[in-house]
Amino acid sequence: MQSGQNAVQASEFEAQRRAGHRRLRFTPNLEKLYRDQRQHALPERARPVAISAVALFLIYAALDPFLLPSELAHQTVAVRLLLSCPVILLIWGLSYAPVSAKRFARWYAGAYVWGGLNVVLIIALARRQAFPMPYDGILLMLMFGYFVMGLPFRTASVGSALIIGSYIGVEAAFDTPMPDILMNGFFLLTANLIGMVGAWLSEHRQRAHFLDRHLLELSREQAEADSAAKTHLISVASHDLRQPLNVINLLLDNLSATDLSADQRPLARQLSQSVTHFNGLLGSLLDISRIQENMIRPVMAPVPVATVMQQARDALDAEAVEQGVSLVVEHCNPALAVEADPHLLHRVLQNLIGNALQHSGAETITLGVDAGDRQHRLWVRDDGRGMPEREQTRIFETFYRRDTDNQAQPGLGLGLAITRELTAMMRGEHGVVSCEGLGSTFWVTLPAAQAITTQPAAAMPIELPAGDRILLVEDDDTAREALQQILERWGFAVLSVATGALARHLARQQAFGLAIIDLHLPDIAGDELFRELLAANAVGGGILITADTGRKQAYDPEQRLWLMHKPIVPARLRAALIRIQHTEAV
Predict the structure, then answer these.
(1) What b/e readout covers 164-186, taking b as 16+ CB neighbours within 10 angstroms?
(2) Once rounded to an integer, what is the mean pLDDT over residues 131-147?
(3) How far is CA 25 from its chain centroid?
């Protein structure tokens, strides 16, 4: 059925709906599809119809001996039990048999005519013995044909006309008075006309429903295809736009480290700031697009508050240091936890910190939590310029920007809107408290989770051969060379390769203190390669780099592993390396 629908374009369904179908006919393609679907539905409908028809014939067979003369009763019972019921039971059996839908539809229509002719036969037997048998049974057959059995309008009309014609022929053959034939014929034809009108209206409604249903299904399929195309575009854009940004960022850092003239240094700095700003805009656009396309679905779990706040601070600490801002996490109970998606909560806190860094003009930004019985409130407080009340009511709106924002490098006003959407996905609330000249406190409230019992971390080996040696695995040649120059400038010995196979080969020959691996390699996933190297004691820690912002940017102390987004900010990379080395030295 689905393949038949796919062969018919939505335009053909729409054209048919505009043209109408008063003659109960579609264009050839649609007519074939409609009949196929209707015929496929007949077996299921035939089962209760068959059971009810057999029950009626059995009831009449049981009543005949009491209502009819003995000889006539024997004959009518024989007709009902030997001619009518077996055919009806045959239809019931065929509804479960592997017969074609078209063949079953013919048998089904034939059974209707057969049952009607059997009623005519019973009336003929009664006329033969001069018994005044009424024609009510034919009226019952007409009702079955038009309404109960669900036969197509034309099939029911032709079958009913054949039954009525046979009845009138029997009455004429047994010399029934003409006035009686005309009177009975009039009532039967009137009943048949009512049935025809009802059947026409029913089929017309069914055909209209058929068109609407398939148009809706085609629209849904088109919407899903469009959504899939947008999802693919977002994924491709995330990687293909961030990759060249990563190369530019690394090359700019290497350029800034050279002896530039006094005129060149401001240009390099401005270019670096523009790339960083563009990357922020790109990330916000991709995030809001993921939300609008329902690509983000939270996976709720107990999340330790202290851990997620520290991870958010670590992710933006280098940027805060560059701006001369102190980023502080207030001490809180390590067992305190909220029910949230850890990745989405990390993104929420990052957005709140980033907003404070970009817009508040603060000297200190503090992260903290107010514990409650059923909910915990996580907050980010700054000692900056604050906001007037009129802005506080709109600050979380999409594309809203504050009057004090830097117009030279305008943002999109998406960071706090994304925070609002992600918080709502986690069944949380959000808000802000601010006073001009006294700073602002942005907060999110999330359901409290059962306290997490922290276990001391297992002792990690601290004796690493060649702790200053780094294995760099990156398939982009320019990015690999630029990143290698930066690492060597920082004093590391770097061996760089483009594939996982070459990385394994080097790891079998020597051990490395750290590995920096692109998450998307041509022959293996970067995280899988890191696990292999870690299990073989070939590395002591590492950094995964990716253009996929759907992955959480955070540090895993158990594996000594950072996941960082492209474009790589050298200051953040250096901070990550220091964090890993510090963890190893503990």
Answers:
(1) bebbbebbeeeeeeeeeeeebbe
(2) 86
(3) 37
**Where does 334-424 show beta strands of DSSP type E?**
337-340, 364-370, 375-382
What's the CA dihedral at 252, 257, 259, 261 to 10 degrees? Answer: 50
Helices then strands, counting H and E runs in the chain, come out as: 18, 13
Least confident of 15-29, 266-280, 458-472: 458-472
pLDDT at 416: 84
Pairing of strands 514-518, 469-473: parallel
Residue for token digits 């004796």?
A: 463
Q: Of 198-212, 361-375, 495-509, 551-565, where does mean pLDDT reach its minimum?
A: 551-565
In percent, the amount of the chain with pLDDT more than 90 equals 29
Contacts of 495 (CB under 8 A, 6+ apart): 469, 470, 471, 472, 506, 512
pLDDT computed for residue 347 by the predictor: 82
Amino acid at 329: V
Chain-centroid distance, C-alpha 444:
27
Cα-only R_g, the chain: 40
Task: Compute φ and ψ for 26, nearest 5 degrees.
Answer: -105, 180
Phi, psi of 455 (to 5 degrees): -110, 145
Q: 456: how many CB neighbours lie within 10 A of its CB?
A: 5
Helix axes 477-489, 178-256, angle to 10 degrees: 40
Write out the DSSP string of 410-440: ---S-HHHHHHHHHHHTT-EEEEEEETTTEE
Q: What is the pTM of this model?
A: 0.51
Instruction: Give the torsion sign (CA, 162, 168, 171, 174).
Output: negative
Max Cα-Cα span within the chain: 125
Buried b (16+ CB within 10 A) or exposed e, 388-403: eeebbeebbeeeebbe
Q: Rounded to 5 degrees, what are φ and ψ at 285?
A: -60, -45
Our CA angle for 117, 121, 122, nearest 5°, is 120
Strands 375-382 and 364-370: antiparallel
How long a stretch of residues is the chain?
A: 586
Q: Residue 245 is encoded by which pair of tokens?
A: 């940004």
C-alpha distances out from residue 329 to 368, 382, 402, 555, 581, Å: 6, 12, 26, 16, 22
Q: Please answer whether residues 145 and 160 qualify as being in contact, where contact means their C-beta atoms are separated by less than 8 angstroms.
A: yes
Tokens for 383? 């000692």
Distance of CA 41 to the CA centre of its chain: 30
For 94-145, give the DSSP string. Answer: HTTS---HHHHHHHHHHHHHHHHHHHHHHHHHHHHTT----SHHHHHHHHII
> Structure tokens of 263?
């005129």
Q: Hey, what are 563's tokens?
A: 């996941």
Residue-wise pLDDT for 278-337, tens only, equals 666 566 566 666 666 666 677 788 989 988 898 888 878 878 888 889 999 988 888 889
